Amino acid sequence: MVKLIVKAGPIAAIFIAWLYTYYQGLATAVNIWTISEIFNHCFLVIPISFFLIYQKRTQLSQQSFAVNYWLLLPLVATLVLYTFGSVGDIRLFMHVATFVSLPLLIWFVIGNKAAKIIAFPLYFMLFSIPFGEQLIPYLQEITTDLAVPLLELTGIPVYRNGLYLDIPEGRFLVAEACSGISFLITSVVFGHLYAYISFSSLSKRLLFIGISLIVPIIANALRVYGIVLIAHLTDMEYAAGADHLIYGGVFFAIVLFLLIMIGEIFRDKTGITESQQPMGKESVGEKSVNINNTPVMTTVVIILLFTSQSFWWSTIINNQAILTGDALTVDFKVLPFEVKEERLISWRPDFSKASNIQQGVIKGSKPKENIDVFIATYFGGEGELISSGNRLYSADRWTLIKDIKISIDEDKEVQLIKIVSPSGQYRYILYWYQFSNEVFTNKIKLKLYQTWMAMLGQTPKSAIIALSVESGQKMADIIAMLKGNVIILQDSIKD
Fold first, then answer.
1. Are residues 234 and 314 in the same domain?
2. Which residue range forms the structural domain that includes residue 249?
3. What are the pLDDT digits (tens) for 95-114?
4. Number of domains in the chain
C-alpha cells in the first residue's frame, strides 16, 4: 500500500496541476456541453475513454512505464496554444489545447509502449472538444442541394432561393436546426467507438467510420425532403411546424439503428476487448506496475511547466488592463457627402459591446439610392470585434445567399454579401475590418493578428465598417455605386 501511494502521489499531483492550469478551458467546454444539444454527448467521452483504459488493465499491468520526456515539446506547444486562446478569447484553441494535453500527459507518464496499448482511448478523448458548429452553413447548403432534386424527381414544383424552398403550398427554410449537425457529430463519435469495439482490422474500422460520416448527411437530406413532401401532401397541415423537430429525433434513432445493422453485418465474430482475452496465470491483483523513471522529478518538471504558463498569462492580462485610449471614430461632418444619423432597423447589425457605434444613411437622389452606413469601433480590450455574438444582419429576418471578395483598387479588398428576406427582398452588405492602418476581410486572419499583437503587449484600435443597399439591381451596379464611398471611408478612419 505504501509503495502504491508513493507511486500514485506524484502522478495525482501532475493531474491536479493539469486541472488547475486548464480550468478555464474545461469550464467553458462544460458550459458548451450543457447548453448545446449538439455536444451533450461530450459528457460521456472522458468516462468512456477511462473505461476503455480500464479494460486494458491486464496488458498495462504487464508493461513497465517509462516517462517519455520528448513529449514535453508537444506539451509546451499546447500550453502556448492555450495561452494564445486565453488572451484572444479563442475558445476553440483553448479547448483543443485542454483536451490534447490530457492524453499527452498520460502518454508522457506511461511511455510509448504502454501508450500503444491504449492508443484508441487516448485518441477518443479528443472528441471532448466541442467542435463542428462551423460546418453548419456548409451542411445547410449540402442538405438543400440534395433535397431539391429529390423534390423535383417526385414531381413537386419547387423554387430555390438561397436556403428557402418554395412549393405551391408554402415556403420552407433549411435553417441551422435542419443542417443535421447533431446527427453528423454524434454519428461520427458513435462510428469511431463502434468500429473500435467491433472490428480488429484497420481497413474495416476506417470503412465504418466513413459510413458513419456519409449516412447522416444523406439521411438528413431525406428527412428534409420527407418534411416538405408531407407538407405538400397534407396541404401544410403536418410537418410545417414544431412537429418536424419530433420527426428529426425519430429519424436520428433510425439512422443509429441503420449504422448498427450495417456494422453487425461485417462485425468480427470474436471479441477484441480485454475482458474476452485470456487472463494468463497471473491475475490483475498479482501483478504490479513498474515505473522506471523517478516520479518526483517528473512531477517537478510538469508543475514548473504549468506554473510558467500561468505566470506568462497573468503578465499579458495585466498589461492589457492598463491600456487606455479612445476608440476610432469617423467625423461624418467632414465627409464629402451628408450622413443622416439614424438607427438601422431594416437589417439590424448587432455589435452591442463595441466601444463606439455610428450608424446612419447617405441620402441619394432617390430612395433606392440610399446607402446605409454602420461603423462599430473598439479599443483597449473593450469587447471583441471578432465574436460569435456579433451580427452584421438579423438571422431571423435574412438568409445569406452569396458571399464574395471584391477589389476596390490595386491594394484594397472588401467583402460583399447578398442576403434575402422571407418576403423576397434583397440586400447587399459591403464591409471590411480596420485594425489600426491595416484592412482585413478575413475574420480568422484578423483574430489571429489581434491576439498576436495582444501577446506582444499591444492593442491597436479596430473597427468594422459596413455599407448596405436594399435593392434588386445587378451586383455590378451595386458595387459601382458603393466603390467611391468605400475609398473615402477607408481613408477617413485611419489614424
1. no
2. 134-266
3. 999 999 999 999 988 889 99
4. 3
